[in-house]
Amino acid sequence: MGMQVGMSDYVTRNQLIIQNQNVARSFKNINSQVMYMESNNQYLSNDNYRNQVYAVSDSDKEEKIVDLTRLFMNKDSYLKGSIAGADDVDFYSFSLNGILGKYEKSINITLEGVGNTQFDMTVYDQYGNQVGLGEKDADGNLNINITDITPDTDKYYIKIESKDAGAMLNNEYHLKIDLEDADNSSSGGNMWNKMKSVLSSMHDKASRGESYDAEISELKNIQENQKLEYEKNIREKQEEQYEKINGSVTEKYDCSEILDKVSDGKDITEKEEGYLKIFANMFSYEQAMAQGNVVKIGYEIKEIFQEAGVTDLDSIAIYRGNDGGFYVSGIEDTSIKAKVESEINAKYKEKLYQLFLSGSEELNQYSSKEYNRTVKKQQLNDYLYKISDGKVSIDDISVDANSGRIQGLPESIEEIVNNPVNNYKYKDIREKILEVKSYERQTGSQIPSVDCRYQFINGKLQIA
Q1: CA-to-CA distance for 202 and 346, rounded, in angstroms?
Q2: CB-based contacts of 186: which residues, under 8 Å, 6+ apart?
Q3: Position 94 in a domain
Q4: How many domains would you assign to the chain?
Q5: Helices of type H across 159-281
Q6: What CATH number did the domain enclosing 82 receive?
Q7: Helix (H) / strand (E) containing 121
Q8: Of 181, 202, 223, which residue sits at a domain end?
Q9: Is residue 230 in some structural domain?
Q10: Which of 129, 157, 181 is the C-terminal boundary of a domain?
Q11: Mean pLDDT by 10 residues, the chain (464 residues)
C-alpha cells in the first residue's frame, strides 16, 4: 500500500463529534490531574479506530466525553484501560491542533503497567502511516518518541493490543502522553524556522504596503518540500524498524497481497503480520482484518443454520433491525427463523455491528464528517426506537426554529431532553439531535441510514 500524506486541514474523527473546546469546558481546573477511563459502552467502543471517545472521572465523579489532548496539560494525568484477552484491541487518538510551538516539540507516549504481559503499542499519523512502535525500557514500560511533527500530522492514533495468544482477561495499563521541547534540527523545527523567516518578511512588506506574492509562493514551496521530506523520513524509519526486528530487509512482501489474504479470512505467517504492522496503511489494515473476521465468524454462524436444517445459505441475508437486533431473511419456517435469530443475537450481536463499522466498503469511503453524522443518526434511531417501542424515529423529530425546543419526542423523555440541566446522558442526546437536524435543515438533504447487512456468497459470509 502506498504511503498517504496530504496537505489539507485535518478533520477530527470523533464518533460523537466532541470538539476540543469542550475539553476545557468540562473541567474546573485545566491543569489539574485527571484520570481517563476506557468506556465499556457499546457505542463508545474503542475497538475501532473510528471511535475516539472515552469516559472520564474527575472530582465531580461525572462521566464526560473528551479526547486525549488534555493529557498534555498535566504530566501526572493518564488513561486507565485494560486488554480483555488476546482478541481485544484498544484505539485512542489525540490532536496537536491549537498547541503552540508544536513544530518544535517531541511527543512521548508511555504505556505503563504492562509488566510481563506481552503488549504491542503502535502509533499512526492521521493518514494511517505507521510512525512509532513501542519499545520496552528498563522498567518494562513501552515507549514511543515522535519528533517529526509537521502541518500534516496534527492527529495521531494509538493502537494497543496483546501479542500473547494466551493473554489473561483485563490486563490493566496506564497510558501517558507528554510534549517536550525538541532539537531545532528536527524536521518540524527546521520547517518552522524557515516559515518564521518568510512570515517575518511578509509582515514587513505588508506594513509597507508592498506585494508579498513571492513569500506566499515560498511558503507553499516550504510546505511541499516538507511533505516530501516527511514521506522519506517515514519510509526510512519503517525500513530501520523492519531491519531491527528481522535482521535484514532482503525479504520483501507486497502489502496488498497480504491484505487480500487477511480480508479473505486466511491465516498469514508471523513475518507477514510483522511486515503489515510496519508498512501497511492502518485504514486498509483494519478494514481487511474486519472483513477477515466476518469470514471467520461466518463459519460459526454457518453451523447455526446447518444445525437448524438450513442448507441453502446463498439465499440468506442477515440484517440489523431498528431495535439493534439482527434478523434473517430467506427462511420461511417462522420457528426455525426465530431460533436462528435468537442464537445469532446471543453470540454475535455486538460483534457483527462493530465489524460492519470497521469493514464496510461504503462506510470506509465516507469522509470523517460523513461517517460521524451517519453513525450518530443511527445511534439516535436505536435509542428512540427502544424508548418508544418502535413508534418514533429521528425522522419524526423536528426543532422549533424560534425556541430551539425539540418536538416529536416520546413523552417519557420530552422534558428532560429539552431541559437536561446537568444530566450528561440527555445533554448528549439533545446535542446529537440538534446537530443532525441542523445539518439536514441547512443542506436540504437527509443523512443516509446505516444499512448493516450481511449475506453468504458461495458459502462465505460477507458484508453486503
Answers
A1: 65
A2: 104, 106, 147, 148, 149
A3: yes
A4: 2
A5: 187-207, 213-246, 255-263, 270-279
A6: 2.60.120.380
A7: strand 119-125
A8: 181
A9: no
A10: 181
A11: 46 27 33 61 64 49 56 80 82 82 84 76 94 91 88 84 66 87 67 86 94 93 88 92 76 89 94 92 95 97 96 94 93 96 96 92 88 90 93 95 95 95 86 95 92 94 95
Q: Show the cell assigned to 206.
A: 505588508
For residues 443 and 394, the answer to whether their CB atoms sit within 8 Å is no
* Same-domain status, 299 and 166: no
453 falls within a domain = yes
Can you say whether the dihedral through the CA atoms of 282, 286, 287, 292 is positive or negative?
A: positive
Residue 271 falls inside a structural domain: no
**Contact criterion met (CB below 8 Å) for 290 and 358:** yes
- Report d(CA 113, CA 78) in Å as an integer: 12
Q: Are 296 and 461 in contact (CB under 8 A)?
A: no
Which pTM does this prediction carry? 0.80
C-alpha closest to that of 71 among 25, 37, 35, 122:
35
- Residues composing the chain: 464
C-alpha cell at 209: 504596503
The Cα 184–Cα 294 span in angstroms is: 48
Q: How far is CA 424 from CA 61, 231, 405, 410, 427, in A?
A: 12, 42, 18, 19, 5
Q: Determine contact, residues 69/20, Cβ cutoff 8 Å.
A: yes
Instruction: Report the pLDDT value the prediction gives residue 249, as an integer from 0 to 100.
Output: 57
123: domain range? Answer: 21-181
Beta strands in 342-419 (DSSP E): 398-399, 406-407
Question: In angstroms, rounded to a whole number, what is the distance separating the alpha carbons of residues 199 and 204?
Answer: 9
Sheet with 89-95: list strands edge to edge: 89-95, 155-162, 119-125, 130-133
